[in-house]
Amino acid sequence: MSNKQYTNKSIRTLYLCILFVLVFIFYSCNEDWFGKENKDFYTKPTQVMHDISLYKSDNGQVQAYLTSTIVESYGGDSARTIFPKGIRVLFFNDNMTDKALLTANYAIDHQGSDLVYLRDSVRIINYNNKDTMYCKDLYWDKSAKIVYSNNPIRRYTENGQDFGDGMTANELFDSVTIINPHGTQMVDEE
User: Fold this and answer.
1) pLDDT(69) > 90
2) Over the range 99-130, which residues count as b (16 or more CB within 10 Å of their CB) and which as e?
3) pTM as predicted
4) 32 CB contacts (<8 Å, ≥6 apart)?
5) pLDDT value at residue 142
6) In sequence order, what are the residues at sequence separation of 6 or more whose Cβ sits closer than 8 angstroms to the Cβ of residue 62?
7) Is the alpha carbon torsion for 128, 129, 135, 140 positive or negative?
8) Cα distances (angstroms) measured from residue 176 to each of 83, 121, 163
9) Per-residue pLDDT tens for 124-155?
10) Quick one: which of 170, 181, 178 has its CA closest to 147?
């Protein structure tokens, strides 16, 4: 092998090595390869729980009982707890009788906020006054201890059916205010 052929072969080998290193650096710095573990932290749940039951109490008095078939917890900057298959919350009177039932097909609790958002077939049954309300979505402000909806609601009572442009209530549904109520109600003439 001549000296010139040996030099050409060495230069080609050197170019191939440089090309290999550049391709390796390019793909290793690519976001699809390099940041994959960090992306999964935000897009995949850090914890999944099945068939959960939680009690909420205040000063030893049980106020509510929450159940859900699946709960997903996410971490990171947008930490949140999601109930993708919905929730069922039973509220109790002081004597532990059923006060109200809240159901929704989806709920999300953002950890950095005091708001819990419920949507998809939200239903509230008040056992004390026998009212049933339906709405598209509902917000629960944990710090203000109120629930509200700014979307149309439908309420059924013993006296008929009425509608509203929204509603506000305390978190235990003791007091409910319908925004712009309208509908048909039966009135006792006595």
Assistant:
1) yes
2) bbbbbbebbbbeeeeeebbbbeebebbbbeee
3) 0.71
4) none
5) 84
6) 55, 56, 92, 96
7) negative
8) 25, 19, 13
9) 998 888 889 999 999 999 889 899 999 999 99
10) 170
Helix (H, G, I), strand (E, B) or coil at 64: strand
Q: What tokens does 5 get?
A: 């052929």
Smallest CA-to-CA distance from 111 within 72, 67, 68, 78 is with 78
86's tokens: 């919905």
The torsion angles phi and psi of 133, rounded to 5 degrees, stand at -120, 145
Please name every residue paired with 135 in a beta bridge, in sequence order, or none if there are none: 122, 153
- Give the long-range contacts of residues 46-50, CB within 8 A, separation 24 or more: 46/73, 46/74, 46/75, 47/72, 47/73, 48/72, 48/73, 49/73
What residues are paired with 110 via a beta bridge?
80
Lookup: tokens for 161: 């059916």
| CA separation, residue 149 to residues 88, 146, 152, 177 (Å) | 18, 10, 8, 11
Q: How many CA atoms lie within 13 A of 147 on its CB side?
A: 20
| Residue spans of alpha helices (H) in the chain | 3-29, 31-34, 36-43
- C-alpha neighbours within 13 Å on the C-beta side of residue 43: 6
Biggest CA pair distance of the chain: 120
Read off the DSSP letter of residue 144.
Answer: T
